[in-house]
Amino acid sequence: MPTASAVLRAPQVPVVLIASQIGRLPLAAAPLALLLHARQSVSLAVAGIVVAVFTAGMAAGAPVLARSVDRWRQPPVLYASASLSAAGYLIAAFSTGRPAPLLAGAALAGLGTPPLEACLRALWPDLVPAADITAAYALDIALQEVIFVAGPLVTLAATAAAGPTAALLTAAALQLGGVAAFANAPVVRGWRGGDVGVRHWAGPLRIPRLVVLVLGVACTGAAVGSIPVVLTGYAEASGDRGLTGWLLACQAMGALAGGLLYTRARPGGPSRLPLLAGCFALGYLPLLLVPAPGWMALLQAISGVGLPPLLTACFLAADRLAPPGTAVEAFAWIFTAFTVGSATGAAVAGPLTDVSVRTGFAFAPIAALFAVVAMGVVAYSRSVPA
């Protein structure tokens, strides 16, 4: 039976997994670092725009960088993108309160974010036996939850020690260090994208079912992205703003548990995508009860359990659907879709939560229902291993 321990025992897996985790920490650390740094000299509204520009840069840059990886190998693109991103962090860190360089630095930092997530997922077939692929994806996605718990803590520690500027420099250093360790692994240096001759301008998106899958992931991201905003309203209504962080941590722990449990699953048939999407959607329905904080913590943990299995199935399906030589770009589109969906969910959840907290919580299961429909189309329009 596939297990997380079997994956971790495979040669090179601990090295590339740990290096990828370190290099991806800025995904969670940088937004808070940019917000705290910007808030020293500009209004909260402008600081919010700085974070939005960073996020938009990541979403736009990921598919472009991933297409370059498919064409030119992983190390050159990873080193170049990490250098560009580090330059962006430096510009933002030393912007001395001027909005223009602050925004430019945030944009560069986002655009140059190395596609470590997509690169790692393209390596799994070379790292573990076919029977352990599902476990590898599930473990990777589960451990990603650790990033979103540890990242903000790293930012807060660096800020407490030397100020918000140090937090930005720490993010750049972690990213460069993680990329260097990852790109130096033999499996990374030896990996090659498929030889496809003339490349189609649309890349993997020329496959209609992959486009539908990407749209389904965007709906999944919208459901997830709405929750922090609604929880902020819930915490304020409860009289303790600090509840938000704890409740989000509970959700992350639930996701970690769900991912680790799913490492024991074997590859399933076409029906697994909509089935997992349905479980993911059901996990958000109890939040409509809007219970007391103790029960809400439990419900948040439950709502997190279904995300890693669904994303695991999505990445496996993307790998099967992507034409030869486009796997990394296909994975990057999944990342971009989730990021854009998350930002959209956060934007929509704000006005809904102003109506009532329960109305805000209603958005997640509705968005997840659209994901179920999309996954059903992907699964049943033609057989897709998931």
Give a brief rundown of this model.
This protein is mainly α.
Q: How would you describe this protein?
A:
The chain has helices at residues 4-9, 13-24, 26-39, 44-72, 74-93, 99-111, 116-127, 133-162, 164-183, 186-190, 208-238, 243-262, 272-282, 293-305, 307-321, 327-355, 357-381. It is mainly α and 386 residues long. It folds into 2 domains: 8-192, Growth Hormone, Chain: A (Up-down Bundle), CATH 1.20.1250.20; 202-386, Growth Hormone, Chain: A. Helix 3 (26-39) packs parallel to helix 8 (133-162), helix 11 (208-238) runs antiparallel to helix 15 (307-321) and helix 11 runs parallel beside helix 16. It is globular. The two termini are 17 Å apart. 56% of the residues are buried. The mean pLDDT is 89.
Oligomer: single chain
Distance between the termini: 17 Å
Strand content: under 5%
Query: Would you tell me the structural class of the helices and strands?
Result: mainly alpha
Task: Give the C-level CATH assignment of the largest domain.
Answer: Mainly Alpha
* Whole-number mean pLDDT: 89
The rounded Rg comes to 20 Å
Question: Roughly what percent helix?
Answer: over 70%
The tally of domains stands at 2
Q: Indicate the overall shape.
A: globular
Task: Reconstruct the topology from this structure.
Blueprint: H1 4-9, H2 13-24, H3 26-39, H4 44-72, H5 74-93, H6 99-111, H7 116-127, H8 133-162, H9 164-183, H10 186-190, H11 208-238, H12 243-262, H13 272-282, H14 293-305, H15 307-321, H16 327-355, H17 357-381
Helix pairs in contact: 2-7, 2-8, 2-9, 3-4, 3-8, 3-9, 4-5, 4-6, 4-16, 5-6, 5-9, 7-16, 8-9, 8-12, 8-15, 11-12, 11-15, 11-16, 11-17, 12-14, 13-15, 13-17, 15-16, 16-17
